Amino acid sequence: MHTIDTICVISSPLGEGGIGILRISGPDAQRILKEIFRPRKPRSPTESHRLCLGCIVDPTTGQEIDEVFAVFMDSPRTYTKEAMAEVYSHGGLAPQRRILSLMVERGARIAEPGEFTKRAYLNGRIDLVQAESVLDIIQSESDEELQYALQQLKGGLSTEIVAIRDALTQALAEIEAQIDFPDEELTISASATLSHLDHARTGITSLLSSFSEGRAIRYGLEVLIVGRTNVGKSSLLNRLLMEERAIVTPFPGTTRDTVEDTIHMRGLKLKIVDTAGLRKPKGLIEEQGIERVKARIPTADIILWVVDGGRTFSRDDEEVFQAIRLKDVIAVVNKSDLPGKLSKKAIKEKGFPVVETSALTGAGIEGLKDAICDRFLTKGHRDGRVLVTNIRHRDALARALEGVERSRVCCTASEPLEFAAFELRHALHCLGEITGETCTDDILGQIFSRFCIGK
Q: Tell me: the pLDDT tens digits for 341-366?
């Protein structure tokens, strides 16, 4: 148990509100609560897991500070597995700060960011994946983010990692047995060891392949609207955002700089970016705007290439295509409400999916939304498949896969088994970084420093 001292903090956001929450965790939690809390009815204020109405009182002066609810929770059935107490006061700054001062005066110290969750991890109530998921729940902005954060909190990814570690541990045990007892007649087949390695490789590869979808849900995507001038890019942005975010005029070159905003669509967080039309610039301002567009193209997750369905395919359209042809692109044939002059065949031959829209009437916009989301969301997220949503986890899995692959090469190329064992230990160490078994203090510090005070 990682019980050293007693910590306290205001867990609710500071400011005016209906309720303020203060937490204490550590060996003196019961004593501190008993000294400052007076129950309304004659009963023990430290009876475990029973909410009690009463007042916070300054023991030195006898002054009542606030009417509150209070609860004491004995270890180990608490968030940190330590003795804990919580006080639910009125949500003003004055009562909360006064109560916190009383706790500190009686021996508690102010908690560091994320220290309650860190203690829960250090005391073995949750692993590191689950600890990180607590922060993900707090920061989630969509139902999809919340769903996968809860999945991680319940141990979804941890269960997958444990299964992979078990397969690698079995393979390592068989390899080390052959190293330690070379003269013994051991009934260990090379095919059985390779089977364990293949099972682990399949599991890691599956998790890594889910990161594209997981990243889209967790971090969001940048959607760049690109095209020549006067094809309706700004109108399309406004239609997607359902507000007049960008200025729209009949004159080409209205947009000189990027205009962007964030929306949630089918569970994805999308940063939609309208850009200046690509053409030969007419003036310094337009030239700088076009340069900014070209600088954003390489980093965009997906590009909406907008072409005018009411005009023939032009040299400017072709130049736009050449600038984006290596990116993930959806061709948007806009202005479908006008008589069509554009050859759809010329667009489809570019190899991109094509969606016809009218930014003016809204026709085809829902189909465009589906096309964007389908590029990143699979049926996996609806079927409860575990997704990797954390870059740290992705990097650790990639390093673990490298170790498994190198170990497999050693086993199949008749190289010394010591090399294979070394690579497997490396892979197990990388997987341990994810769940916390082999995590360094530096990594722990980086993770918990991102938490808010009080969690």
A: 787 777 888 888 899 998 888 898 99
Structure-block tokens of residue 302: 């997906």
- Is residue 114 exposed (0-12), middle (13-18) or buried (19+ Cβ within 10 Å)? buried
Indicate the helix (H) or strand (E) that contains 304: strand 302-308
Is the four-CA dihedral 334, 336, 338, 344 of positive or negative sign? positive
- pLDDT, tens digit (0-9, with 9 covering 90-100), for 104-158: 999 999 999 889 999 999 999 999 999 999 988 988 887 788 888 898 899 899 9
The closest of 454, 453, 451 to 135, measured between CA atoms, is 451
* Peptide linkage before 76 cis (omega within 30 of 0): yes
Reported confidence tier of residue 439, pLDDT bands at 50, 70, 90: confident
- What amino acid occupies position 65? I
Which of 194-231 are b and which e, b meaning 16 or more Cβ less than 10 Å from the residue's Cβ?
Answer: bebbebbbebbeebbebbbbbbbbbebbbbbbbbbbbb
Helix, strand, coil in percent for the chain, rounding step 5: 45, 15, 40
Contact of 244 with 238, CB cutoff 8 Å: yes
Residue by residue, DSSP assigns 55-112 as EEE-TTT--EEEEEEEEEE-TTSSSSSS-EEEEEE-S-HHHHHHHHHHHHHTT-EEPP
For 194, 208, 370, 416, 445, the CA distances from 408, given in Å and listed in that order, are 7, 19, 41, 12, 34
| DSSP per residue, 49-64 | T--EEEEEE-TTT--E
DSSP 230: T
Q: Judge whether residue 251 has pLDDT over 50.
A: no
> Do the Cβ atoms of 198 and 206 come closer than 8 Å?
no
User: Which domains, from first to last, does the chain contain?
Assistant: 7-111 (3.30.1360.120), 131-210+387-448 (1.20.120.430), 222-379 (3.40.50.300)
Query: Is 5 in contact with 79 (CB distance < 8 Å)?
Result: no
Token pair 């061709």 in the structure block, residue:
331
Note the Cα 81 to chain centre separation in Å. 26
